[in-house]
Every structure is written in C-alpha cells, then in structure tokens.
C-alpha cells in the first residue's frame, strides 16, 4: 500500500519484498486455502500481494515474524465476533502457512478505492471517524503478547528515539515546526501519559489503508462510503487515543477548515467510542506528533537513501498540515475536540457560569453609575445597520449621542454574539474559510475618559496596548475566581476590558489586586482605541488559552468565526452574566412603546383610569423590588405594597401555578386549602377575631364589612375619618372623603359622618390622641341625630394612607373605640394598606394602638398581587350575619387564591420579612431624618416600618404644602429609575411603601436619588 506518510517497520522496510509470479501465488492459494479465481497483482512495498478470486493472498516479507501475523489474525478474529459487520478482512483457514521460507495467508479482498483518491465530504469524514470508533470499540478486551512491540518506530510514545532525526530535515523553517511539535508533545502529552489508557490499536488508518466505495441505493449511486480498512501491520498495544490521533493526521491533510474537518472525524469516532477528557486534551497534539514523526523519519531515510525523492515529496502535505496545527493554540484544539465529542467545549464553562448566576456573585457596575437603572439604546453593528453607515468613528459617535439624547439614555449598547461586518483588519483572518466576525463581548459606548470599573474583586492579569487598527488599543484583563472568600480557591476566569485610554496603561499594573468597583481604566477615544467610537468592550473568558511556551500576551479574540461560535460561546460566555442588563434590553420592544400603548389605553380603557408619572411607563416584568420597562431599564419599586414579598416571588408563583393546574372552582364544595388558610390567617389575629370571609379585593372586603356591621346592628350610618379611602364601590366612595370631597365627588352623603384625621403634624390637636377621638364622639352624636339610633360602624385605617401616611397619635384609636362601643357601634380596622407585618413591630397596625377591632379588612399584600381580600371577624358577629341571606362570592376563596395567600404567609415567615420591615424601615426613617437636616423642604418625616412619608413644605413655619415640588420629585426619581408616589390632601406627601423585601442597600439607592432630586429641584421649584 502506498501512503503519503510511509510508515512501516524498520527491518521490513530494509528487506526487499518476495518476488513470486502471479501464477505461482495463485497456485499456492489453491494448494493451501482451496481458493481459486482470476488472479492479479496488488501493489505492496513490503509484502507480495495477489488477488485471487475474492481473496488477497499475501506472501510476507521474509523478515516478517509469525507472531506478528498471529497478532493480526487474532485481532481480526476478535473483531469478527465483536462487530461482525465491521468491514475488515476475514482470514481464510487455516491461517498462516509456511511456503518456501515465506509466510502465506489469504484475507478476504475488500473492494473500494483508497480514501486518498476521492473528495472528502463532511459526511465521509464523519463516517471515517465512526468506522475507527467501531474499531476501537471492537478491539476492547483484545490482547495479544505480540502487540507489545518494544521500541516500535511508529509508536507515538517513541518521540525520544525519533527526535534526533529532526537534524536531518533540510529546511530551517520545516525543522523548526517539527521541533516545536515535539516540544509540544513534551509539554502537553508527556505529563499526562500515565493517565492515557492503553489498548491494542490499528495505528495506521492512513488515507491509503482506508477504502471507500460508491453504492447503489434505490437505483441511484450515493457518494462514497467507507468500505473497509486494511493493513493491520502496525497494530500494537499503545495509547488508546493514538487511534484517533493517527486517523486525524491523515484525514486533515489539506482539509479547507481544520476545526470543521476535525469535528467531522471526532464526532463520528466519539459517537461510537467515548474518549476521556485527558485523551481529548491531547488528541490534536498527538496528531501533530504523528506528522512530526513522519516528517522526521522520512527526512532521516532520505538521508540514508538520498535518491528516493518520493520520501521528501510526500512530506509536503504533512508539513502543511503540521504548520497549520502548530499555528493554532493547543487549548483551542482541545476545546474543539471536546465540542466535537458533544461535550461543553471548555470543561470549566458550566462551573463558572453557574457561579456567575449564583447569589454569591454580586457584580459592581462596570460604569460609574447604576447600569440597571440607566436608560440605554441598543444598536446593531451588523452589516448595513444604520450605525455602520458613517465615514468614521467621529460621525458614528455623534449619531450615537443623538440617539441617546432622543431616548433619555446614558449609554449605547452593542450586542454579544452579533455577526458584524466592521472587523476589517488582517488579525480577523484565521485558518477558517471565513474571518472572525461575530462579536464575543458587549460594547458600552460612552464618552471618552469615563471611568471603567472592576465588576468583581480580582487581580490584574495583563495591561497591554493592542495598538493596531481595528484592534483593542489599551486593554486590561482581570483574573477572578469562583467561590471567592472560601477555602476552595475556586475556578479562575477572566474579564477583558478593551478600547481604553492610554492613561489606563499606567493606572494599573500586572499583579495589582482590585476590589469590585475599583477604577481599572478609562474609556479611550478613536485615536488610541483601534479607531472606534468611544466605548469599552467587555468580555468574560473561561480560559486564556495561554501559549504553552510564551504565556498569555494580553490579547484575546473579541470576535469569533461564525462556524466556530459553539466554541467561542463556551470560551467567551455572554458578558451580560456580569453586566446584568435586563434581558428586555435586547428584545424587540416596538410593540410595548408608550407611544403605541398610550393611545390604545385612552381609546380602550376610558380616560378616568389613573396612570402614574408625566412620562408614562411601559412595565413588562417585575422581580423582587425591581420593575423593568419595555427597554429593560430597571426601576427600584419603592411604592408597591401589593407585591408585598417581592414581585414574582417564586414561592408564590409556584403555589399559584401548582394549584391552578389542579383545581380552581368556587367555594360551594369542601376543600382543605381554604380551611387551612383561614385557620392560619386567623391565628395571626388576637382573640376573639377568628372567622374569615374571602373576597377578591380590598373594596369587596370593606363592602362586606359594612354589610356585616349593618346586618348585625340594624343601622346604616357610618363614621369614618376625614381623608380616608376605603374602596371603589358606590357605598365605599360614599364613606371615603378622599373621593367624595375631591374632584368629581358629590360631597358627603347624609349617612356618612366624618371625624377629624388625627394628624400630629397638621391636625388641630397636635399629638393629643384622645382629643382627636372626641371628634369621633361628635360624629356618633351626629349619626344618632340623623337616624335616631347611631352609626353601624366606625371605620378607620390603622395608619392613614390617602391622608398622607399619617401615624395616629397614641391613645387616639383606643379612645375612639371606647366612644363607638359605648354607642353600640362596631369598630372596623381597614388594614388593606398596612397589614401583614409591614409596620415591623406587629403583624397588624391596629395592634400598636392596643385595640382589638370587631372587624378587620385585608387586601392588597394578601396575595402578593393575586386578587384576594378578606374580612376577619368574631364568631358572634358571623352568627348574626347569617340572617338567612346566604353569602356567596364566585371567586372569593377559590383554591388558587388561597394557595397564593398561604404562600405569602410562608414567605413572610421563612424570610423573616416582618423583622426586615422593621430594620430597613428604621434605617430609612433615620436617613430621611438626616435628609431633613439638610433639606428645609422636608417638613415632616413619619411612618412605621416600611410605610413612610415625607411631608414637603415650602416653609416649615407655615407648613405650606409643596405640592408641585412633590410631583417634580416623584417624576425626577422616575427619570433616575426610582419609583415613589405622592399622596395626602395636598398631594405633597412623598409616599414610601415598597415590597417588604426592601434592603438597606435598596434604601441607599432611594436616599441617594432623593437627596439629589431635592437638591436639584428645591432651589428652582415654584412649589
Ligand atoms: C385603605 C384602603 N382600603 C381599601 C382599598 C380598596 O382596595 P381595592 O383597590 O383592592 O379594592 C384601598 C385601595 O387603595 C385602600 O387604600
């Protein structure tokens, strides 16, 4: 057999092949094996081979040993059992015979042409890999004494013996590349040798030993398929992985794309036979070793046989392939081998990414502001995109600034994994057919000299100036590790910051330790940053692929070849794992634009539906204390007390989903959930409150409370506090001064009697609680005068929300309850806003007043946004309510609502949220009080837990409400990504009532922005 890379044992090479005539061999064949048929000579360099009928009759070189042939026959017999359909020769009985000093045998003749003679499609290469994988699988468990060929020339472990022959390579450049391949073997393979499995391998799947053939399927000819493998003469016990390495050394010769061709072969091989990670790590190194050995051996032979030109001519393709292999980083090829084997290319990728996604990883902002809350414009740099149509970086930056101004944005974002046409430099050309064009980082375009910050603690790995057009310019690479701060040193990974200013080069030094948030560089301009609009390119690297000889040089690709992106994505995962722009940032959000939704809303929903802020928000997602708009901009939610345990709390979401998938029906059947929930909820109240009714809203709860009170007392009139709000039904609007006394209201109806709002800051009686209670007594008297009997109920929130976050003075509610009860009037506590631990010290705000109401109404936070409300009352009142008219509420108390309510109680308990409300609330109150020392517009700071208010005034002595300023502050904070609202009779009270998962860190954001807004606005305000 002829091969591009001749590879035969030394001694056999030195002995001439036997020289019988074809007729003589055909005669022997009949004589020894009973074989007959047309005979023709087959080419061979070391044996004499003659095809006789369906057999290849082999007359071995006189130097061939019998044991060697026994090995081959035993292997073929083993394969025939292990994989009967594998196309390898079968041995004709009786096996090896001796004839005239030569060993004779007959093997079935395999049809087909050498692999070297046909075009190699990906499919054919894959088949080749598969075939060799089957060979490895089939040879598992096979052993033979003759397989242990000590000092066998071609064994890849034999590099030390071959290496001196490098001196025989004529050209310096060729010698250097072969020498380098041997060094690579020494650096990368030798240390792992003890981990590489041993096995008997064919070891010579060269492109003349592999046969291919076209076949007819359904009447038409297919492309060539692998039809067999011959020549088991190099078979030996060696490294298992050598089989694939040798196969690759030939299969890749002159392949247009090494990685793609390698993927074809390796994916085929590993589909049949799994390799270990260590084997995959060195398979390309060993392929290079095979090529290097082959070149060294043939150069040596040329030295010995100077006339044999073929020996050096055949080196050319091997040298070409070796040069290409050696130009690629060995780790890249290792990752490519893993990818081909169906594994995550970079083995540590998953470990790193899952840490980056873990709660332990809390990255700081890469820019000097909170990117979560920053307005952003995402641009495309794909071929033909508007941003690519500018003559130079100056013009494109002007265009970007105009985009930011129009959108009120602080930063322009360029996408990860985007195929771009802008990478024109030579450095983007590789051995792949296409240049590197797919962006592997995220670009943040922002003014030059803006500081760039470390997102995690780390160490400076490199600081270099990649001073080439289209390149990075000054670049910093930081090394980080997973599980920082634990005994486990963690897995290292790196973050690259590119396109920086030259000042960066002296700002940090290799080996410097940096903390999260530290400045590690400055944005460069186009004269230094490779010629781009000012920006930082940020990317995460799971491996540096440092050169084994020269180490990491501070340069790492920022774009990958489209066909190799599976590899690049594993090497350079999405930088957004650290930058953390909300996913909506990258979505198409045209359908959710406020300009699209607002006209629809006005037309479809009626103009009286209220909406917040001058610039309306299109909110698409909530998470904890954050809301996200259609562009992915985050807003710190400081006002939504409905999302009590945080937006989209997974425990609540799961409880709703689980129950919705099982049953959701009305309460006309027995069901465990409603009972469990009612008992658990009732247990949070003092006796004698023990009976629960479920509704769908706070309004429904208050409606029902009035109905119970009116049924039980036989009276209709109600006493309520001024500025109170109790719900949206007709009855409730009629007892809510906040509605009937404001725009569009019809004024107080005769059956409603208002008592003073007990406001220690603005009320008539300061903090004299009982004095305010007297006005309740007055209202009761008015009711008696109106209906002759008195009011059915006295209703009050436990802290007034719409009244302006007013905390009632001590003794006020207790005295008011005494007056009410003396008049046979029931006491209703509206806890719709303030309940469920929000006030911190108690579960229910009425508890702080030392009173026990007759009826308590619940809503908003009870289901964390799921429509749910409840009335809690006493057993005697419940009995009186059962006057014959049945109570039925289609949706109230359904299993899904109860599951939601139960889950909310779980979270409050498990996460200690009442204590959190107390802690963060106390912290906020203190910070607000500190703000009040610097901002005279803050007239009063008040509240309990996380239910707080700031009463803004134009003049502290007159307490003139600063209504306009309050609105401006709310709108300014919204611009800065913080949501608050205003309330109170004069709409001048800043209302703070966030989800109670709110932390001190969240409180700091609120106070920082509030401080800024007050500074900026109070000087210029007209109030
Ligand atoms: C104190 C109070 N009670 C009752 C309600 C009515 O609740 P809902 O809007 O769920 O009907 C509200 C709503 O804002 C409220 O603030």
Describe the structure.
This protein has about 1000 residues and is of the alpha+beta class. It is about 35% helix and about 15% strand. It is built from 30 helices and 40 strands. Helix 7 (about 240-250) packs antiparallel against helix 8. The radius of gyration is 41 Å and the shape is elongated. It starts with 9 loop residues before the first helix and ends with a helix. The model is unreliable at about 1-10 (pLDDT under 50). It binds pyridoxal-5'-phosphate.
Quick overview of this protein structure:
Helix content is 35%, strand content 17%. By secondary structure, it is of the alpha+beta class.
Comma- or semicolon-separated keywords:
7-stranded mixed β-sheet; binds pyridoxal-5'-phosphate; 35% helix; 8-stranded mixed β-sheet; alpha+beta; 1023 residues
What order do the helices and strands come in, and which of them pair?
Elements: H1 10-14, H2 22-33, E1 39-42, E2 48-52, E3 55-59, H3 66-82, E4 97-99, E5 102-108, E6 113-114, H4 122-138, H5 159-162, H6 172-189, E7 198-201, E8 210-213, E9 216-217, E10 220-221, E11 225-229, E12 236-239, H7 242-251, H8 258-272, H9 277-304, H10 310-313, H11 315-327, H12 330-340, H13 349-356, E13 376-379, H14 393-407, E14 411-414, E15 438-439, E16 442-445, E17 451-453, E18 458-466, E19 473-481, E20 492-498, H15 504-507, E21 513-514, E22 519-522, E23 535-541, E24 559-560, H16 565-571, H17 576-579, H18 594-605, E25 619-623, E26 626-629, E27 634-637, H19 650-660, H20 672-682, E28 689-695, H21 698-713, E29 718-721, H22 730-733, H23 737-740, E30 752-755, H24 769-787, E31 793-797, H25 812-822, E32 826-830, E33 855-858, E34 869-874, H26 875-881, H27 895-910, H28 913-934, E35 938-944, E36 947-955, E37 960-961, H29 963-975, E38 978-979, E39 981-983, E40 989-992, H30 1000-1020
Parallel strand pairs: 13-14, 27-38, 29-30, 29-31, 31-32, 32-33
Antiparallel strand pairs: 1-2, 2-3, 3-5, 4-5, 6-8, 7-12, 8-11, 9-10, 14-16, 15-24, 16-23, 17-22, 18-19, 18-21, 19-20, 20-23, 25-26, 26-27, 28-34, 33-34, 35-36, 36-37, 36-40, 39-40
Helix pairs in contact: 4-7, 4-8, 6-9, 6-11, 7-8, 7-9, 8-12, 9-11, 9-12, 19-27, 20-27, 21-26, 24-25, 28-30, 29-30
The protein binds pyridoxal-5'-phosphate.
